[in-house]
Amino acid sequence: MDEQWYAAGAWNIPNLTAGLVAQLQPVRSHAAQSQSAFRARFEQLPQEMQDHILSSVFSEPEFSSQCTKLVPQSVWMDMLLNDRIIPFLWDLDREALERKIAEGQKMGVEWDFELLVRQLCQTAFNESSSCLAGMPAGLRNRRRIWKLLGEMYVGDYLPEAPSPASSPMGQPAAIPRYWNEEGDLQHPLVWMRREKAKN
Fold first, then answer.
1. What is the domain count for the chain?
2. Which superkingdom does the taxonomy of this entry point to (predicted)?
């Protein structure tokens, strides 16, 4: 596997939107009658209620990669552009996505934004996943960094390698942990044993 993407710039990503647009696939099958009925009722709800329903969907710890076709593709496109759902995609070009939709409409094609959003939201993310194969290297690196940030917590640390300039007493065998993983003060104080870095 080509691992050069680990060093790719994750802030300014050339052709980011174009790379995502290239991943869009046509909707493979039409919604069943029950799905269409739900979609019609969903679209009649006030925007606040739609937002509330969608927020509960994304609160699940494991977000399924299977498409349901219960929500219109336009809603999934809005979620793609809304950095509260996929926060590492804050710089997408809405106009480019809308042009892609217009091109599809001319050809009678509806693009599957639901599939793309579900692929990008997988918590069990694998850098070699097929959904990333054609995406810009910088996006793959940004997704990796964002995943690491999401796994960090207050008091988290990396093992420290011994330094030639360290004091004669050396590093302490344990370090205090003042906060728990939620960021609340921890009482009584917990001491964590310092791990030795592997050479």
1. 2
2. Eukaryota
Please identify which residue in the block is written with the tokens 């399924």. Answer: 64
159-165: long-range contacts (C-beta < 8 A, 24 or more apart)?
Answer: 159/194, 159/195, 159/196, 159/197, 159/198, 160/194, 160/197, 161/197, 162/197
pLDDT (tens, 9 = 90+) of the chain, 199 residues, equals 455 766 677 788 888 888 888 888 998 876 677 788 888 899 899 989 988 888 777 655 567 778 888 888 888 888 888 876 788 888 888 898 889 889 998 999 889 998 888 888 775 555 555 555 667 777 888 888 888 887 776 666 655 555 444 445 555 566 677 777 777 777 777 776 655 545 4
Return the HEC string of 20-68: HHCCCCECCCCCCHHHHHHHHHHHHCCHHHHHHHHHHHCCCCCCCCCCC
**175 and 136 fall within a common domain:** no
Do 195 and 135 reside in the same domain of the chain?
no
Token pair belonging to 54? 């969608």
Amino acid found at 64: S
Query: Which residues constitute the domain of residue 56?
Result: 4-151
